[in-house]
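To illustrate the input format used throughout this study, we show a single complete record. The first block contains the structure-token representation of the backbone; no residue identities are included at this stage. The design step must infer an amino acid for every position from geometry alone.
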């Protein structure tokens, strides 16, 4: 079946650019358009004239819409158990930090700012196709039904390794061109990008470290080997009292002590952590794991390839999309 994408956009110019870009990069995509928030919800709920509307595989949502704005639409989608597993990407002209943070609070899967130049806009649409519609595991349309949520465990107690650039790389003058682009994507501040990898396989840890080092030397990669250690790192407990707040979390599912599903539930239930994008990176391609992860508000779901080259390419695609294209909540300096 062709991939179904719902574009919620009221600007005729941006609509045309998006249609042309998708037609060029992937003519198999069926792009549906809603010009305002009320129409979008009618499409998603199959109301009135939209009774036969297909369930989208992906939603691209503008924020500033007539009738019902994108923030309200996003809240409705993520509160509806029949719709909440549909990945919803905010695609808007706003780069305001308040909009970025609020969108992640409302469980947007990612936040993208529309570029002003046509070539850059086209490149962004190509990136959406290459990552979300090629690499990411999306829930199957006929199996994305609501299931019982995971109950959260009490607070946990829990040593994590890290692979960080030299302190000299904190100086913008020493960043590569890609590093500078990454800094702009996450809001700047001159700090290295903080990524937490939650992974118990030493081989996969080493492969990820090497692939990130090759892709982007401005990344500081921290490693937690189980779920308890990951939560201690995120909550600054014990030996992790001075741990930085990650810009991005890469989370395996099958972990010792506390599995990734429980870690994900803890993260997304914590007001202090839930805006951190959390990407599932696991060997499982079971539909039950994919659906459950989106129900638990994973930002996206990726399966680890078996081949070394494919694994390296996947890590590069994470860097190229999440750490270059996506707007992440700004990293705050920690007082010392």
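Output of the design step:
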């Amino acid at each position: 079946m062709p991939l179904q994408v719902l574009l919620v956009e009221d600007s005729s110019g941006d609509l045309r650019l998006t249609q042309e870009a998708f037609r060029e990069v992937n003519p198999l995509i069926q792009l549906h358009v809603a010009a305002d928030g009320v129409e979008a919800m009618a499409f998603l709920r199959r109301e009135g004239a939209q009774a036969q509307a297909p369930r989208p595989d992906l939603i691209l949502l503008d924020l500033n819409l007539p009738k019902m704005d994108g923030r309200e639409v996003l809240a409705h989608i993520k509160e509806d158990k029949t719709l909440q597993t549909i990945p919803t990407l905010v695609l808007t002209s706003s780069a305001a930090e308040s909009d970025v943070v609020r969108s992640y609070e409302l469980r947007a899967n990612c936040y993208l700012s529309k570029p002003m130049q046509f070539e850059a806009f086209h490149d962004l649409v190509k990136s959406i196709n290459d990552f979300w519609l090629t690499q990411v595991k999306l829930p199957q349309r006929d199996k994305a039904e609501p299931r019982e949520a995971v109950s959260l465990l009490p607070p946990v107690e829990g040593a994590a390794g890290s692979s960080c650039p030299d302190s000299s790389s904190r100086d913008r003058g020493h960043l590569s061109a890609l590093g500078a682009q990454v800094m702009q994507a996450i809001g700047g501040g001159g700090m290295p990008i903080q990524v937490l990898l939650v992974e118990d396989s030493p081989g996969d840890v080493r492969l990820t470290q090497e692939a990130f080092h090759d892709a982007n030397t401005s990344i500081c990669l921290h490693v937690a080997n189980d779920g308890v250690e990951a939560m201690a790192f995120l909550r600054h407990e014990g030996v992790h009292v001075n741990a930085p707040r990650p810009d991005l979390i890469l989370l395996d599912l099958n972990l010792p002590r506390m599995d990734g599903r429980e870690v994900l539930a803890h993260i997304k239930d914590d007001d202090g952590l839930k805006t951190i994008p959390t990407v599932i990176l696991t060997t499982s391609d079971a539909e039950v794991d994919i659906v459950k992860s989106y129900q638990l508000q994973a930002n996206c779901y990726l399966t680890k390839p078996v081949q070394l080259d494919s694994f390296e390419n996947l890590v590069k695609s994470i860097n190229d999309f999440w750490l270059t294209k996506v707007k992440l909540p700004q990293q705050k300096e920690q007082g010392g």
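Structural context for interpreting the output: The domain at 4-132 is CATH 3.40.50.2300 (Rossmann fold). The two ends are 54 Å apart (CA to CA).
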